[in-house]
Amino acid sequence: MAHHNHFPFVIKSMITALFFILHCIGFSGTVAGSQKGQWQLLLNSTGVVAMHMALTHHNTVIMFDQTEAGPSGYRLRRRQNGNRCTDNRDDVADSSCYAHSVEYDISSNRFRPLRLYTDTWCSSGSFLSNGTLLQTGGYGSGTRRIRYYRPCDFNVTFLLERKPSDVVEFTAYAPPFTTHSISMNQRLLKLRCKSLVKAQGGLVHAVVEAPPSANVAPSGYYMLTVVNGGTPSMSEWVRFMHH
């Protein structure tokens, strides 16, 4: 009797799954229109599993994994305490001789290792208004821990004095929601500046054009940032709504 009741359930589950797949295909076709996207391989490997991934306002991507799962694919020359990582058996198996986080620069197609001091499995985080990534929680050594990371440019040149630049950009950044993996909501938009007028007292009045459609910028809250000569300002929260 149980066997006969199980069979219709399987058929219903298959029909439901098929309907869901067809619905997703139809939805993706409606959003994409006639334009077809394609995947492009940029790097064979970064050496680190992207259990967490976040896009920064510098157009870089932070990827990091848990630290207690053993070696990664990115071996370091030295541990966090400065001791050298050798080729002996203990060091090869030591997880502290491997990077568990990297920052990928989209424009240059390069990445660099970042150090994690506590285990981030399983944790969550979000960006602050100044672009700092705030990370909380974890497992073992990462329990009840709060971490922060301030993104910076890959090719940084520090100057003692710097005059304001005439190159000004406006960006709208949709921060990722709290997730255990990739956030499909995060995106960085470069807004079109229609006019830029310098006023008295060093102020600048700008008229910026909003995104054209919900396909480009879905309704929600974004961090509006003024980028002057490559230096971002403190962000302000704005809300895009489409009727």
UniProtKB/TrEMBL annotation:
Signal peptide: none annotated. InterPro entries: Glyoxal_oxidase_N (IPR009880), GO-like_E_set (IPR015202), Ig-like_fold (IPR013783), Ig_E-set (IPR014756). It comes from Malus baccata (Siberian crab apple). Coiled coil: none annotated. This is Glyoxal oxidase N-terminal domain-containing protein. Gene3D superfamilies: Immunoglobulins. Residues 51-154 form the Glyoxal oxidase N-terminal domain.
